[in-house]
Amino acid sequence: MPPPELDSILRRELLPGERLLWSGRPDPSRLRAVFAIWFFAVPWTAFALFWEAMALLPWMASSHTPLGIQWSFGIIFPLFGLPFIGIGLGMLWMPFKARRKAAQTIYGLTDRRMLRVTAGTKRESASVLIGQMGPIDVTADADGYGTLRIQTGTRLDSDGDKVTERFEVLGVPGVNRLEGLLLEQKSAQ
């Protein structure tokens, strides 16, 4: 979606009397870290394809394979390998899906909350009130692009481990300016 359409979608999310102080869109080309999954996905998918090729061998060498083995192992093993190929292809696709989602996302800071709106096939919206924000963590590149993480709370998972919940603003320009505005709003509350 072009930026003006995303901006109008963000403005429709504002509550009556709410003022927009900052808005920004992530740069999908800066999401290089999402490709790290390929270190696992490529070997996984390669092994799954190798498994499938070996499992189909009884059918390819049918003149040398006994009929019982051909019909038992020649069906069970290839079927067993199909979900693993699907998982591997899904992992290989994940970085492209994340970049496409970033291109359809806009963030906004108002005088009341931080918003994230994604306008893909369905519109997704998330926000956190300024009063509910905990510590803020910022990482920025030399050119000002960066990520802002806002701690919104902690909870215990099913194993009893402490999990920190965060609202993330990923790969946006002027992240230090956003942090300053956010800290101003927190101190004003």
Overview of the structural elements:
The chain has 189 residues and is an alpha+beta fold. It folds into 2 domains: 3-28 and 104-188, Pleckstrin-homology domain (PH domain)/Phosphotyrosine-binding domain (PTB) (PH-domain like, Roll); 36-99. The chain has helices spanning 3-12, 38-55, 57-60, 67-103, 175-188; strands at 20-24, 105-110, 113-119, 123-129, 136-140, 146-156, 162-172. Strands 1-2-3-4 form a 4-stranded antiparallel sheet, with helices on both faces. Strands 5-6-7 form a 3-stranded antiparallel sheet. A hairpin with a 5-residue loop joins strand 5 and strand 6 (146-156). The radius of gyration is 24 Å and the shape is elongated. The model has no long low-confidence stretch (mean pLDDT 85).
Task: Name the overall outline.
Answer: elongated
Q: Let me know the average pLDDT.
A: 85
* Share of residues in strands: 25-35%
Q: What is CATH's topology name of the largest domain?
A: PH-domain like
Question: Main attributes?
Answer:
elongated; three-stranded antiparallel sheet; alpha+beta; four-stranded antiparallel sheet; PH-domain like; 2 domains; 189 residues
Write the layout of secondary structure elements.
Elements: H1 3-12, E1 20-24, H2 38-55, H3 57-60, H4 67-103, E2 105-110, E3 113-119, E4 123-129, E5 136-140, E6 146-156, E7 162-172, H5 175-188
Antiparallel strand pairs: 1-2, 2-3, 3-4, 5-6, 6-7
